[in-house]
C-alpha cells in the first residue's frame, strides 16, 4: 500500500504492534526505564558511536532524554516489551525529507533484552510503516565506519551500502567517516518476506535459538569494501 506522502516529523507517532514488542511514541513515562539501560554493564561499549550517548553522570540523563523528546524533525519510538510492558530501548525516524519521500532510521539505543529477534522486529516495524503506511520510497541507515556492529546490522536488515562520506562530522572532537546504507520501496517486498520468515515463532527453538539466520534469508545487498 502506498499512502499520500506526509512529513513523519509532523505526525504523532502511531503505535506499531509486533509480536515480541510494540513501538510507541517515546515520552517522559518511558524515561525511567530507558535511563536505567545506561547502567547495563556493556552500555558504554554499545553506545560509543552514538552522536549523543547516555551521559556517564546519572544526574544528566533526564536532561538527555528531554532533549530527544524536544528534538525538531525527529520521531522517537520506545521499544516496549509485549510481555512485561517495560521499555527496553528506543529508535527514531530522522532526516525526514518528505518532499522526496526519504527518511532515516537512527539514534538507536537497544538494551541487552533487545538483542536478536526483538531488535530486528523493531527495525522491521519501522520499515513496514515507512514503506506501506507513510508511502516513503527510501529508508536510510548511517553509521560511523568504526561501528562494525551497526554496519553488520545494516546488511543483516537488508540495507545496501551506497558509499562513504569522508570527514563527514566531528563528534566530540574526533573525525567521523560515515558509511551510508539504504533500502528502496521496490526492494521492500522481498526483504519483508525475509523478516517475516525469520521472525516466525517456528524459526526459534524452545531456548529462543534461531534455526535459520536472518542473513541467510535476506536478499543480498552490497556490503562495504573490506
Overview of the structural elements:
- The protein is α+β, with helices and mostly antiparallel strands and 226 residues long.
- It has one domain (13-217): Aminopeptidase (3-Layer(aba) Sandwich).
- Helices cover 27% and strands 28% of the residues.
- The protein contains seven helices and eight strands; from the N terminus they run ββαααβββαβαββαα.
- The chain has helices at residues 31-36, 43-46, 61-69, 117-133, 148-156, 188-199, 214-217, and strands at residues 16-17, 21-25, 75-81, 87-97, 102-110, 138-144, 160-171, 174-184.
- It has an eight-stranded mixed sheet with strand order 1-2-3-4-5-6-8-7, covered by helices on one side.
- A hairpin with a 5-residue loop joins β3 (75-81) and β4.
- α4 packs antiparallel against α6.
- The longest helix is centred in the middle third of the chain and has 17 residues, at 117-133.
- It is globular and about 45 Å long.
- The protein starts with 15 loop residues before the first strand and ends in a 9-residue tail after the last helix.
Secondary structure: helix percent: 25-40%
CATH topology: Aminopeptidase
Number of domains: 1
Into which percentage range does the β-strand content fall? 25-35%
Strand elements, count:
8
Parts with pLDDT < 50 across at least 5 consecutive residues: none
By CATH's scheme, which homologous superfamily applies? Gcn5-related N-acetyltransferase (GNAT)
The CATH class label is Alpha Beta
Number of helices: 7
Largest sheet: 8 strands, mixed
Instruction: Give the strand order of the largest sheet, numbering strands 1, 2, ... along the chain.
Output: 1-2-3-4-5-6-8-7
Which word captures the global form?
globular
- Termini separation (Å)? 37 Å
The helix/strand order is: EEHHHEEEHEHEEHH
Tell me the structural class.
Answer: alpha+beta
Amino acid at each position: 500500500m502506498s499512502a499520500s506522502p506526509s512529513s513523519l516529523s509532523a505526525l504523532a507517532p502511531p503505535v506499531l504492534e509486533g509480536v515480541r514488542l510494540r513501538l510507541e511514541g517515546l515520552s517522559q513515562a518511558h524515561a525511567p526505564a530507558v535511563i536505567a539501560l545506561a547502567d547495563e554493564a556493556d552500555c558504554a561499549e554499545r553506545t560509543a558511536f552514538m552522536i549523543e550517548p547516555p551521559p556517564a553522570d546519572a544526574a544528566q540523563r533526564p536532561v538527555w532524554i528531554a532533549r530527544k523528546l524536544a528534538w525538531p524533525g525527529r520521531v522517537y519510538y520506545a521499544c516496549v516489551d509485549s510481555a512485561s510492558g517495560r521499555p527496553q530501548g528506543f529508535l527514531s525516524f530522522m532526516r525526514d525529507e518528505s518532499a522526496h519521500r526519504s527518511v532515516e532510521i537512527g539514534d538507536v539505543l537497544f538494551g541487552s533484552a533487545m538483542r536478536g529477534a526483538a531488535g530486528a522486529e523493531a527495525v522491521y516495524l519501522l520499515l513496514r510503516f515507512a514503506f506501506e503506511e507513510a508511502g516513503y520510497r527510501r529508508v536510510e541507515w548511517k553509521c560511523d565506519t568504526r561501528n562494525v556492529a551497526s554496519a553488520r546490522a545494516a546488511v543483516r536488515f537488508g540495507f545496501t551500502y551506497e558509499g562513504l562520506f569522508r570527514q563527514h562530522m566531528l563528534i566530540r572532537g574526533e573525525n567521523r567517516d560515515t558509511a551510508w546504507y539504504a533500502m528502496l520501496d521496490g526492494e521492500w517486498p522481498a526483504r519483508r518476506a525475509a523478516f517475516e520468515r525469520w521472525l516466525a515463532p517456528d524459526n526459534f527453538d524452545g531456548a529462543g535459538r534461531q534455526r535459520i539466520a536472518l542473513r541467510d534469508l535476506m536478499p543480498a545487498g552490497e556490503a562495504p569494501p573490506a
